[in-house]
């Protein structure tokens, strides 16, 4: 699964991105698997982190299966277009990457568990590509919402890089930053048919799975 870095598409500049629209995409409630609300407010004590690891269908399923995760949702983040459509995001002209919003209870699941699921189930060494999916909309990223998350994400990258290097793989290309500094800083919900996609379509496309190198 691991390959060389491939910069297949340059990131679109803010002034060249599609404009989008002011009206948010409407999503249905509750989560089709977890039975919890996709949008805030969420229970006191929960925290939010955003992860991107290629096609968001398979990525979301990985995280809704983790005990301690309250709810997941798929959407677009890291770019400039307001309330983009899936078709617009697929052009690479929004600046967004397909992203999973993960709301979790830190008393029930620690960040290392979430990061292990992230690193182990995609190829973080390919830039703007996962498998045959190419473009900045498929880039690997972690967008954090607290200073503690950011520090932990950076530490996890160093841990996993050491594992990769020891096994002869290349450098991690994952974007890690505070959510507020990722494009316009907004997570835009994807269309309802994308939410819980692999539960609704069990035989649907998924290119995620164990990537040969464990985190621990």
What does this structure look like?
The chain is of the alpha+beta class and 216 residues long. The chain has one domain: 2-Layer Sandwich (Peptide Methionine Sulfoxide Reductase, Chain A), CATH 3.30.1060.10. The protein contains 5 helices and 8 strands. A 6-stranded mixed sheet has the order 7-6-1-3-2-8, covered by helices on one side. Strands 4-5 form a two-stranded antiparallel sheet. Strand 4 and strand 5 form a beta hairpin. The chain is globular, with a radius of gyration of 16 Å. The two termini are 19 Å apart.
What's the quick description here?
The protein is an alpha+beta fold and 216 residues long.
Which structural traits does this protein have?
single chain, 216 residues, alpha+beta, Peptide Methionine Sulfoxide Reductase, Chain A, 8 strands
Q: Tell me the CATH superfamily.
A: Peptide methionine sulphoxide reductase MsrA
Low-confidence stretches: 1-8
Oligomer: single chain
The helix content, as a percent range, equals 10-25%
Number of strands: 8
The succession of helices and strands, N to C, reads EHEHEHEEEHEEH
- How far apart are the termini? 19 Å
Q: Which CATH class is shown? A: Alpha Beta
Beta-strand content: 15-25%
Kindly identify the CATH topology. Answer: Peptide Methionine Sulfoxide Reductase, Chain A
What's the architecture, going by CATH? 2-Layer Sandwich
Query: Radius of gyration, Cα only, in angstroms?
Result: 16 Å
How many domains, in number, for the residues? 1
